Write the structure tokens for this entry.
Amino acid sequence: MMSSRTGHLTPGYLEDDAPPPASVRLQLSALQALCRQTVAVRLAMVVIGAPFALANTPSGAPRHAVLVAAVLGVMTSYALLRDWERVGPRLLAHPALMALDLLFVATLLLTASPASPLAYATVCTPLLSGLLYGWRGAGVLTGLQLAVVLAVFRAWENRPGAGASTVLIAGFCVAAGIIGVTLRNLTFRFGAAGEALSEANARLAAAEAVESERARLAREMHDSVAKTLHGLALAAEALAASAEHRDPATLKRQAALVADAARRAATQSRDLLSDLRRRRDLTTARLDLAGEVARRAREFAARDGAEAELSLPGTPLLLPYATAHDVLSIVSEALENTHRHARATRVRIELDAAGAETFDLRIGDDGVGLPSTAVPGHLAETGHFGLLGMTERAASLRGRLRLGRSPLGGAEIHLHVPVPVPAPHRPQEEAAHA
């Protein structure tokens, strides 16, 4: 039924059948619907044309024959329409069964004549064969039907209008076969195009997921291990400089700093790997953002000696683990920048969760403020990825990160984030885990 074109001819309207896509179930369902519509049209044509055929047929045996043919046509079409799910696959697998349809066509034409309105119901046979079998099947069956039409014309050639009606029916049969094959090929081509589009979308989604994961890993590495390793390098340089003076106490202190930085780097690496492995298990975990922000501020004040002012909501702000993790990473990065670059003595952190759908986080200091070149893209080009990482984290939370001047006189980071909506409760999932 299907073939591949060879040669140097340019494909045109009558090109070979389109191959079905790999996932053909939807396309077969569409073809099945078209075939059922074709059978329904023939049923309607038989019902509508039967009264006109009986009125134009002489009484007696001819009228009885037309009546019997009309009744058989109605019953046959209705049976096909009702049980197409069982009959259709057999017709598709065994084209020889369409000979029964040709026999029905011959009976209808012989009893009602080519000039009868019932004769136009025969046009559905080539349309059905085109939908089912493609160009080759439609060509063979349409040719056989034309032979039947010609043979019937020989039997009715003396009836007025038989010749013109025969030519008209023959033309309709050829056109119906072409239309059937065209619809079949269009269905398969649309299916192949849809399948290719789905595959392209899947590949694009996978590439975007990989790129997003790479960016996330880069942020995690920058916010933890990379900074600790930088501190380790500085401590190692200080140790090398102290070795020239051969002061045992200084050497011991610098060696302890190197060892402590190395241990912190190892711990952060393990924490990062553990977080990567348990991210799926933490999809339902929730953290109190206000409490975690307070803990980070206390640790910052104890480590750097700066004064940390807090303005937090009185009630816990519970967020999904992934959301809280990204927000806390922004807090840690902002505090680290305050320590390393701002030379600040006071830091103020405000968490405003008055709205039910959003919350705002402001981190300001009394330091030197932001330089004029404090643009994420420009800083990333010079090897400083902290601000870029904070901006990317805010975007991943569907929030906004703005830089400005703090009331304390230094820089301020303002984070505006929508509160994630909890997933709806699903009893079937709870039952599955019970």
